[in-house]
Design brief:
The protein is built from 15 helices and 15 strands. By secondary structure, it is α/β, with parallel strands linked by helices.
Length: 446
Amino acid sequence: MDKKTKLFEYLTIGLFAIALLGGSVLAQIPALRPDYSEEEKRELAKFPEYSAETLADGSYFSSISLWFSDTFPFREQLVALNAAVESLHGKTSIQISGNVVEGDEIPDDAEASAPVEDEPIEEPPVEEGFHDDDGIDENYTDPEDPGAVQKFGAVLQVGDTAYEYYGFSESAAHAYASMVNDTAALLGENVQVYTMVVPNSMGVMLPDSLRGSIKTGDQEKAIDFIYAQMSEQVQTVPVYAPLRAHRSEYIYFRTDHHWTALGAYYAYTKLASVNDWDPNELSRYETVSYGPFLGSFYSHTGKSAALAANPDELIAYKPFYESTYTYWDRSGSAHKANVVTDVSNWSKSSKYSAFIGGDQPYGEIHNASLTDGSACVILKESYGNAFVPFLAAHYENTYVVDYRYWKGKLPSLVAEKGISDVYFVNNIMAAQTKVRINEMRNLSAQ
């Protein structure tokens, strides 16, 4: 072994020893141990109190071990550094979180596929993406849902990007279409009902090199099947092709299951063409960045180091029109807010709440730039949040309903507010999930 090789080995050993010693020293400084994780939005483990009982059953020392690892100084930064080093070595990890189950085969002839009378809605083989509040402000405590539950079917992670699998359910597709059709029939010919089913990022953004080997449903074909079931009273808004055409742009988050505001904008331009509107140019809006964002995929993948090393950026487009926005939370309290809120100082996991204050049961946007009495209501889950600021530019009054939490009735709202246009905006997972479809049907009933 030559001198240079020996010197390199000694240097490597020395640096490792210094790092090990430095880590040991840092671990002994209580002031450096965090008690709250900004990225995970939770209180970290506390040092356990001693008792004879916990000492006897072994939980005392296991709790100390948890406290030691959970509060290690600069843990999140070290995890991110590790991911960055791995990326320098050219490592691109591919991993799957959850169980992948194939969905139904999508019939080629959608119009010939008729639902069986009183056919029960089956749960789709891959569960709905996310039962979420999309990040509530740390200062807000929800009395009805103090802990939002993240619930995915299966997630594919490719390097620093995650995607959610999709499995088609024919019975759910029929049920969703039936619900929208029944709503349109109930509201009558003077009210126009629209439906927009939005593909998720796997359907649009998954690299072509992986598409053939990934066991996931064809979302374009699935949406076409759903739309083919709609009655003449329902106007469909096909957004798959416009999103696919812009797939080289930042239209979906990598660490979260939502689309970005830019993705929502391209869907809005498609709606504009359907309605013969002149779409507002994006340049009319003020582009703002609210900093790094680590979303639902980050949590579901066990706080992936690769995702943490390259977080998303929350970019929003502040409306150019003058408006007032009021929403009512789940306790019934009213709050004045902005259509787009500055969330720069919120935790990284909460920033999707920049759009209409997150998932609130009901809200009203009054556009002072218009005086024509126009009114619409959007029935949505969290995907609709980023879409609302663009839609509201075209109506004097926009009513926002999160059907998962709102306790009112749609026919009464339409009559009371003089609403002419009703929009169902759902991501493809929500549009095929039994509990979501039933929630929409319940609020549409008399």
